[in-house]
């Protein structure tokens, strides 16, 4: 996608052939800063600190983290250490484990002297695959937006509600939930996006609004609790959100607050779609509520807010009284019964085991092989 008219990705390899560059998403929307990652520790910290975030981008960053680790120590012990260090950074997004398993599977059979080049090549392939997958998600999701437009009067806009940031900033490029939106906008569809602010990190207000604005997509930022009201008054045609993990049975784990949006959508007969690349499907678990580990994050994300003052300074202020206890759950789980469909690179699927298994049989087989081993 574009930043100030320049095609930009969230992560890339610099011209020196080994430094990894990433957009520091903690600084958006007030500052656009690119950070060089030159060590595996730096890659792990980028994931842990949310310099990079979003399940697909976490996976790509972890892959490059392994490549950086191989420059430091390409032995089996070095590979094991890199895996352990990177897998511990974020517990919820399954793309992290998927990418690390993929990297280890590609590197383990190779002699140490061949691992650096192979690691960089495989990490780059994972990044390119993510771009292609998201483009396909966009094409399949575009049909849903076009159907919504066909059901409206000529000239009426299509209103899409999003939650958190499942845009290109959460992936290598295009995004998941936003890929259909960008393709619809580029195709001339009169589209408008309701952007949930997504407290406590404000990833909708800070990131989704920023990237939509740079692409020229009409949008309106709303408080998190506004979506239900808009649905009651016919102001939302469909919801499209992303996800950090989908179970084999179609339960969806996404940013906290997604479940409440799904409940409101069901009550108001608003289609609720989830856009995801296949590496986000976890065929090892069935019950998302019981089995997906939910990350609990620093209380400061709730107690403090950062913004730009009228005179241009960026300041952090406390908005919660001293001494008040804080719970900061990063994600919630939306049961499959509340999901209209899953927008994947292989089509829009019903949120159920049979549909997922039929669409991605090779992943089911890999799971079976792992169990047999």
Automatic annotation (TrEMBL):
Pathway: Amino-acid biosynthesis; L-methionine biosynthesis via salvage pathway; L-methionine from S-methyl-5-thio-alpha-D-ribose 1-phosphate: step 1/6. GO terms for biological process: L-methionine salvage from methylthioadenosine. GO terms for molecular function: S-methyl-5-thioribose-1-phosphate isomerase activity. It is an enzyme of class 5 (isomerase). It comes from the Bacteria. The keyword Transferase does not apply. The record marks 164 as: Transition state stabilizer. Its EC number is 5.3.1.23. SUPFAM superfamilies: NagB/RpiA/CoA transferase-like. The active site is at residue 244. Substrate binds at residues 53-55, 90, 203, 254-255. It catalyses: 5-(methylsulfanyl)-alpha-D-ribose 1-phosphate = 5-(methylsulfanyl)-D-ribulose 1-phosphate. Keywords: Amino-acid biosynthesis, Cytoplasm, Isomerase, Methionine biosynthesis. Catalyzes the interconversion of methylthioribose-1-phosphate (MTR-1-P) into methylthioribulose-1-phosphate (MTRu-1-P). Belongs to the EIF-2B alpha/beta/delta subunits family. MtnA subfamily. This is Methylthioribose-1-phosphate isomerase.
